[in-house]
Amino acid sequence: MSLTVLMNAGPWLSVPPPGYGGIENVVATLVPELRRLGVRVVLASVETSTLPVDERISVFPDGQFHALQRPYNQVCGVAQAHLHGVVRALRARDDIDLVHDHVEAVGLATMAAMGRDAPPALHTLHWDLAKHPELYGNLDGGGRVRVSGVSASQLARAPRALQEHSVGHVHLSTPLAVGADRRPRVAKGEHVVILGRINPGKGQDLGARLARRVGFPLVLAGPVGPYHRPEDLAAAGDEARQNPDVRFFYEHVAPHVDGDLVRWVGTVAGAERDDLVAGARASLFPLRWEEPGGTAVVESLALGTPVVATARGCLPELIEHGRTGLLTADEEELGDLVLAAGLLDEDECRREAATRFTPEVMAQRYVELYQQVRRLAARSLQLA
Ligand code: UDP
To answer: Which residues form the Glycosyltransferase subfamily 4-like N-terminal domain (predicted)?
Structure first.
């Protein structure tokens, strides 16, 4: 297939990301598979990105994530400068068949603002679509710009105008799913894990309370705001409390963290993360928001660990209740489900991941969407 895609990963972090970086991880997972399928990829990112691609575009020498701590009037030029670089590149060449954009709000608005001679664009919505109602509720992609979601439930709750631009959803994937059904089992421990940013929507406070009530060991892994290690948070002192996730941690989670039954270990990465999840009796997602995509959910399946979760957001699409996990609408029931999760067959979880959540499955689906977006754009040009 001869298709050249400009993959716009944005200016915030390098690809792959040095640590936590949801969107950059998706791009790092997707691009190698697209290239295996014969797609040429031009990556728009920052200079420190090391992902092998066919060509690169960058405006900034390195990731600008740190700038997001600054006030709006000092930071609003960052994403704009990056997008301006992308627009200049698109004007200077005619070999880009499609832009696959991942930059929240400004990527979509910029693509939509380009003229009819610009390439078609697919903008993937990685986030909660209740955000940006004025943009999403009035979107006009001019027939050239379409959106995709990361789950059906995410798109089902989107404003009508956004839904009208949608070509569907592509579930998130994980490299851990490749061959997951053939990987040997590892010994399970007693612990339960909650893997994710510590934040009210992810519900670590509820998980920690249930752990103490029901009596299961719980490991909380993930950053609190910008702090990745307990000692960094402690060293930051009271100033850290300006961050709402830090306040949430101190007020609602930390009172349950006793360092024994309930532990916060900070961000875990690489083999340490995989061992922690693979050795857990269950991964718990005590969600208080409509989880849009759930990378940690599919990673847990790939590592052979059943998922116990509130039946919110994408969870019912990713998890089959009674086979790969246990779901409930009742928060208080989650504790009992954690105890029951040991009865589920971990091989079912691995098989599910190896079938549905590999990077190859994700890339094939995106290629279908690229073709669909190009067909729709060509048709709208003919009608114009
Ligand atoms: N993660 C990690 N270490 C941690 C906590 C989380 O590597 O200590 C990773 C996790 O494995 C997943 C990502 O961060 O790949 C979180 O993505 P998810 O879609 O679950 O949540 P988001 O933060 O994007 O809402």
So the answer is: 20-130
pLDDT digits (tens, 9 = 90+) for 276-324: 999 999 999 999 999 999 999 999 999 999 999 999 999 999 999 999 9
Please state the atom number of ligand 1 nearest to the C-alpha of residue 25.
15
Q: Residue 9 — very low, low, confident or very high, per pLDDT cuts 50/70/90? A: very high
Residue 12 CA to ligand 1 center (angstroms) comes to: 17
String of DSSP letters for 78-89:
HHHHHHHHHHHH
Cβ of 21 below 6 Å from ligand 1: no
Q: Is 18 touching ligand 1 by the criterion CB < 6 Å?
A: no
Find the range with the poorest average confidence among 62-76, 153-167, 262-276, 351-365: 62-76
Q: Is the CB of 20 under 6 A from ligand 1?
A: yes
Residue numbers of the domain that contains 126: 3-173+358-383
Q: How far apart are CA 158 and CA 22, in angstroms?
A: 21
Same-domain status, 237 and 365: no
Residues paired with residue 307 on neighbouring β-strands, in sequence order: 283, 325
DSSP 239: G
Q: Are residues 374 and 241 part of one domain?
A: no
- The answer on 371 and 235 residing in a single domain is no
- Is the CB–ligand 1 distance for residue 196 below 6 Å? yes
Residues 256 and 136 in one domain: no
Question: In one letter, which amino acid is 298?
Answer: V
Are residues 332 and 183 part of one domain?
yes
Q: How confident is the model at residue 384 (pLDDT cuts 50, 70, 90)?
A: confident
Distance 3 CA to ligand 1 centre (A): 31
What is the dihedral angle through the alpha carbons of 139, 142, 146, 152, rounded to the nearest 10 degrees? 50
